[in-house]
Amino acid sequence: MDILTILAESARTAVGPVAAIYALAAIGLNLHFGYTGLLNFGQVGFMLVGAYGVGISVGVFDLPVLVGFVVGLACAVVLALLLGIPTLRLRADYLAISTIATAEVLRLVYRAGFAEPLTNGVYGLQNLSSGFRSVNPFEAADRYGFGVFNFSGNHLWVMVVTWGLVGLFALLTWMLMHSPWGRVIKGIREDEDAVRSLGKNVFAYKMQVLVLGGMIGALAGAMMAVHQAAINPDQFKPQVTFFLWAILLLGGAGRVLGPVIGSVVFWFLMNFTDGLLRALGSEGYLPFLSGPDFGAIQLAFVGLLLVVLIVFRPQGLIGDRKEMLINVK
Amino acid sequence: MSSDETTVSGAEDRMAGVEPVPGVAKPDPILVANGVRRSFGGLKAVDVGHLEVQRGTITALIGPNGAGKSTLFNLLTGFDRVDEGRWSFEGAAINGRRGHQVARSGMVRTFQLTKALTRMSVLDNMLLGAQGQFGERMAGALWRPGWARQERANTERALELLERFRLVDKRDDMAGSLSGGQRKLLEMARSLMTEPSMIMLDEPMAGVNPALVQSLLSHITSLRDEGRTVLFVEHDMDVIMGISDWIVVLAQGRVIAEGRPSDIKSDKQVIDAYLGAQDDEAAESREGDDG
């Protein structure tokens, strides 16, 4: 494998369905953290309920896929309310702890034996995408695109819908944040007591954001279900949330396109480092490593890149350095 | 200091006929508090039997460190929960209301540690103060024609206020780039955006460059002169004596004295409270009074 092939393959992944799904989930996280300052460390929990909304509706009850999306979104609303009502009046760290714990508990519940009639436990759910693919305007087996950017009809359909949703919610974010509502939200990020003293119901605003961002995360989870056609609880480990945080900080928190650029660059780096390590390994340059080590080394390598980024460009790729430099206290 | 004398003489007019005793009834109170209590563990931080604040005056709340001034502020404005007690504002009971509800009813507060929203522009800080904005509702936000006109009117009003507080040149700067004194001015201007009938200032002079103090004082008196009520906590005795119409002295959570500045200066109990607390500032101000 030469370096050009690795670059081409990485570029292809960077615009692929997975990058789109992560970009969408990170848009939700951007609303939470980037604009409102809510520390949500459990975005994967919202993705999980979204994915299983589709999974259970389609896979177990044979309902139309659109119903699955609605169920997933409704679950996200319930989850956001359950998380928000007890914690949003408290200090920010309570939400952080609750979300990370809740997301992990959800995963354990969905994979538990007693949930098997609905979730099929650790075996997960299969055959989830036939409804979605039945409205695919592209030929499933054909290849579309040009040069290295060619995808199967099925993948292209997922990409069109997911990137479409990314565009839609980026636009929604832009519109909300350029309105008086967004001004209140940014004010809450700076100092919620000040905003409260000006007669704004801070709790209600935070709840609105938690619900909206959670629903966007659930939508990303639902797209994941129809993209993969099969889901399994163990895909929704805390690691996914941390990838989303890395994406958000990489791109630039509090920027409309931060999550989008972050996701593209993140998945490019993930694939490029992976491809590079494997290529070096197969050429015999890494004699002290065997196949399974590459994954770990690759993650460490991406982590190192992120650390370097935080040190030299703390505002992210498209963040505003001037804003970062102002002392928040 | 002839300007000080005029304000003091004006002050005596405003509170004419009110006896300088704790808990005294005022002719036209805007705020009436009864039995307000709050303790932290075993410590009784606030225990105010009866307190009235006269409409259209500048009332100062003073007391040694730890007297419960800020706690009382937080309680009255809904930023802390009382153990017991009732208070009414403009004749309507507001105890148990949350901070934002109290602010909406026309009683707005500032903070001891200035809370400028640092990573937002000065103008955005101001616009946050405007009440009843259609665009602040989530659904309304997406329909720009629904709030564009209101936004223009609010911006106009904000710029007028910024002009008055001499911040208009800074309107597009981040609030975090302002100096401490300018932040105090911004906070005051922002609270005026809510069109309050009563303004609660928590240590408005703390951390302000002495050169700005006079300007801040004139802004505070101008608030009263346009018919608003001001209640403020302050440490600087010269400031308090200069601009207050009425002074309420707290010690260990209780109102131990109230009266005009001239009454308070000579009040034995007040002097004892300050001396008893071994407060450096208080000792200084007492020396000032003697001299």
From TrEMBL, chain A:
Keywords: Cell membrane, Membrane, Transmembrane, Transmembrane helix
A matching Pfam family: BPD_transp_2
Membrane topology (UniProt): Multi-pass membrane protein
Main location: membrane
Residue ranges of the TM segments: 14-31, 38-60, 66-85, 156-177, 209-230, 242-270, 294-312
Cellular localization per UniProt: Cell membrane
PANTHER family recorded: HIGH-AFFINITY BRANCHED-CHAIN AMINO ACID TRANSPORT PROTEIN BRAE (PTHR30482:SF10), HIGH-AFFINITY BRANCHED-CHAIN AMINO ACID TRANSPORT SYSTEM PERMEASE (PTHR30482)
Entry protein name: Branched-chain amino acid ABC transporter permease
Organism the protein comes from: Nocardiopsis coralli
From TrEMBL, chain B:
Stored SUPFAM superfamilies: P-loop containing nucleoside triphosphate hydrolases (SSF52540)
Keyword Transferase tagged: no
Alphabetical UniProt keywords: ATP-binding, Nucleotide-binding, Transport
InterPro entries assigned: AAA+_ATPase (IPR003593), ABC_AA/LPS_Transport (IPR051120), ABC_transporter-like_ATP-bd (IPR003439), ABC_transporter-like_CS (IPR017871), BCA_ABC_TP_C (IPR032823), P-loop_NTPase (IPR027417)
Segments for region (Disordered): 1-22
SMART domains on file: AAA
Bilayer-crossing regions: none
ABC transporter domain ranges (all copies): 31-277
A GO molecular function held by the record: ATP binding
Top-rank lineage group of the source organism: Bacteria
Protein name as catalogued: ABC transporter ATP-binding protein
Lineage, top ranks: Bacteria, Bacillati, Actinomycetota, Actinomycetes, Streptosporangiales
